[in-house]
Records
---
Amino acid sequence: MTCSSCEVGIDHCHGTLVEHVSGFVECTDTDCVGFGAERHSLVIDCEAVEGGCGCTAHPQLIAQADPSAMGVETPQDQLLRAS
Ligand SMILES: [Zn+2]
Ligand SMILES: [Zn+2]
Ligand SMILES: [Zn+2]
């Protein structure tokens, strides 16, 4: 894969930088040599990772944040559907 940064020789990465809630950062490119956001064209929160990320699996925290966004059914949801 070649992009404009490749052509001009800028240090960059084609992977997706994933920033975890805990502050841990990783890249989808196994050959990645630096986890700086500035050298990645795509930076996402680990909560946006397809299938979710284990580091956000804290039920209490998720419930307080936004249960509907996590696809977790609340008792209220179930009541609404039953009625
Ligand atoms: Zn490139
Ligand atoms: Zn995570
Ligand atoms: Zn990378």
---
Amino acid sequence: MLGEFQETLLQSVKAFQSTELVMNKYENVLQHLDSGIMLFDTEGTMTFINVRMAKLLELPRQSLIGCNLAQLLKHPGISHYKRKKIIGLYRETIVYRKRNFEFMDEYGRYWLATITYSDEMDGDYLVSVKDVSEFKQIEETAYQNDKLAMLGKISAAIAHEIRNPLTAIRGFIQLLKPHLVQLGRDEYAQIILSEIDRANDIIYEFLNSSKPSTPQKSVISVASLLKEVVLLTESEALMKGCEISIKEVAPQMSIAVDVKQIKQVLLNMIKNAMEAIEEVGSEHSGQIEVKAELEEKYVNISIRDNGKGMDKAMLAKLFSPFFTTKEKGTGLGLSVSYRIIKNHRGTIFADSIKGAGTIFVISLPLAT
Ligand SMILES: Nc1ncnc2c1ncn2[C@@H]1O[C@H](COP(=O)(O)OP(=O)(O)O)[C@@H](O)[C@H]1O
Ligand SMILES: [Mg+2]
């Protein structure tokens, strides 16, 4: 009898231990999931939080178990930014009963929070948070590409419409030319013709770069490309009170690019830099630094200025067509540049500090 009892007891202890083991295993899995997880019971008390979620909240895990929402919001370690996001999450999912809440953290990463509560959860509330920055980036790129494709179409139509009257004007000026020669004003005809040709060239170039065309590539040394571009902008820079300098370019670096298009990109960026410096004020001594560095099979060309700089929100819109903060801006310079660099299988990266300056880094594959 006693033996039987002992046997049963032993069996239940074993069963308990093995459930405990399974529980530990599950808890371990939950702890190390790459999503953040919190569980609140019917009373609204937190009964579980995993490592990832505590990391996201930047609070010690042990100090959170047993808290309710109000206590979590009043936690001495919680940042103002996070408090706002938690209130947002509560409002959207509990008050407005939306399934998901998407937000950006203070480090620029995107998160998708989901709350599950219903019969299936036995009255508990499960909050899970997933890092969706990569999806977001793909989505943004798709959106950007869509806008650029539209821009390509619009610009092609406009350019076409402008070219026709230009051709007509060119024809009539040629007809008038003999009369101007008679009046001793043949240089007027010359100027008009060359200006019309220049306008045509600009349209042609713009069309070329806004369409997803394959670039006309030739091999050029990075050093001579940068020298040429700086030479073209130096006098304008001087007039605007800024100094352009080229730093650290290894002479043997060469790239296979459409030289006209890449020049257009660099000129756009230097022009933007000069304008950003000009906006700080005439007292400001502007510096634009152009640099080219090797990184594996790429060359990173950077243009750094100490102009007015930009905040994060502006940085995010930078490459969108028609985004401009200038009265006479078109907002096309950077979106066209983006397209050109993409066509060259390169990348553009921008970083900026408001009030301090901006850096653009163009990465292009080296010629093989
Ligand atoms: N170097 C820079 N420093 C500060 N802001 C810049 C810089 N480059 C670009 N920007 C910002 O990005 C916007 C878009 O630039 P861009 O596409 O060249 O168009 P635009 O120069 O016609 O405004 C500018 O209006 C400006 O606000
Ligand atoms: Mg510009």
